[in-house]
Amino acid sequence: MTPRLSIQDISVRYVGAAVPALDRVSFDLAAGERLAVIGESGSGKSTLALAVVGLLPSRTVVSGSTDWPGLGHPPVNGRDIGFVFQDPGASLDPVMRVGRQIAEVAYTHLGIGWQAAHATAIELIGRVRLPEPARIAEAFPHQLSGGQRQRVAIAAAIAARPKLLIADEPTSALDTIVQAEIVSLIDRLVKEDGMSLIFISHDIALASTIADRIAVFRAGRMVEIGKTEDVVAVPREAYTRTLIEAAVIPLATSADHAGGGQS
Amino acid sequence: MSAALLELRGVSKSFLRAGQPVSAVDSVSLDLGCGETLALVGPSGSGKSTLARIVMRLVEPDSGEIRFDGVDLAAAQGEALRKLRRRFQMVFQDPLAAFNPRATVARVLDDPLRIHRLAGRDERPSAIAALLERVGLDRSLAGRRIHEISGGQRQRIAIARAIVTKPDLVVLDEALSALDVTVRSAVLKLLRDLQCEQQLSYLFISHDLALVSSFAERIAIMDAGRIVETGPAAKVIADPQSATAKALVAAIPKLKTGAVQP
Known about the structure:
The complex is a heterodimer.
Chain A: E1 5-13, E2 22-29, E3 34-38, H1 45-53, E4 61-67, E5 81-84, H2 88-91, H3 98-110, H4 114-127, H5 133-137, H6 146-158, E6 164-168, H7 176-193, E7 196-201, H8 204-208, E8 213-218, E9 221-227, H9 228-233, H10 238-248, H11 252-258
Parallel strand pairs in A: 3-7, 3-8, 5-6, 6-7
Antiparallel strand pairs in A: 1-2, 1-4, 8-9
Helix pairs in contact in A: 3-4, 3-6, 4-6, 6-7
Chain B: E1 4-17, E2 20-33, E3 37-41, H1 48-55, E4 63-68, E5 71-72, H2 78-85, E6 88-91, H3 95-98, H4 105-115, H5 124-134, H6 151-163, E7 169-173, H7 181-198, E8 201-206, H8 209-213, E9 218-223, E10 226-232, H9 233-238, H10 243-250
Parallel strand pairs in B: 3-8, 3-9, 6-7, 7-8
Antiparallel strand pairs in B: 1-2, 1-4, 4-5, 9-10
Helix pairs in contact in B: 6-7
């Protein structure tokens, strides 16, 4: 099957950096496939996302290729690729009503008028399960909670029906309960719209709940990639095992109580 | 518990919002024993950090009683309060925001030594070096600036600053949330070691039950300013009673180990 996105031997080196931020990374992403990119600070996971959307600083040295075999034209950010950032407070315009911010994406990329774009925005606010969409559309970001703001950011990201959604630590600024809600929302939207997903996270347990495949990054290199179940059950790299152990310890107590162990 | 280090009785605090009082902490009663770790867990906006600030006497409660080692904390003033402050310290979530970024590591650790008159001018450099080693850092780090070191190193410096006065209580307000998993487990180990050596008590504030369960003996669940459940950590997680605790437990991301989802 033709992959939706094919990344070949991508390397990235920032200006003045002694070592590459990304070192010969290759993978394919199928239509509708959900890939989690796991790594710690400085592993290159956000650099990978920026390389895919072409948002690296101008003098950055990039080699390798990013291909979209089925698309027929170079991808347009916002239309073909939707992006959800870690901090919705920083990615939304603080002085623009949120309905307008979502409508802007639809207006820009779908070739529809403002009135239709606004109607689309209200529909999207409903799709991300915010109450009273017409009222929320009139709100400014600061009037919403962190979780509500992230829902708005997701609505804007999917407004143009992108083929690929990139979510870069979309729940790191949110509490655990809201985190679970946002992940299940992303999961549902990706399935409904047949989007491919790149889910960037430092949390392998969280990633395992949404991803078909997991890629583990460390110091700019992709040290492991495989099906979620395989990576979690039989990690090849000691480093991956460390990440998994850190994620498993806390659950030992509840697993013991339930009479089941996790190995 | 016979010898509670910290006792809160009916502590309340509300803030004004658009002229209306909004309750942030509502009749909270808690005990923390010597050498114990109590986790305070709850969703965003549940009042955890306000309660921490009340315990640190950074925020005055509207009502209620706070006793620290038997002393009425709310009534302490002046020199008596200053002496008490040495015994309770705090580590914040974001160490970059908690320090002057352009200060050197030595300067940051020199402050408490000087302010609390813990070491003379000549002894301070060696005290700082010993402290750095105590938290697992190289003594050569003393000359570096806060903005030049990594997040994990910074949080260790924050811990070093908190323990330099040999406190009885350290409040950790989301102190591990911003750290990578591998760094976090090293810092957790450091906190445990310090606890064993110095009989430290921790009030560990977090929204993350998974993290808490590996560190705290007891958990207090907070929601909308109130303590809705307390109990041994393992029990609360295995068998949560309150709706809030149930929601928090359900939200712990579980590693997908077995069956493939459809």
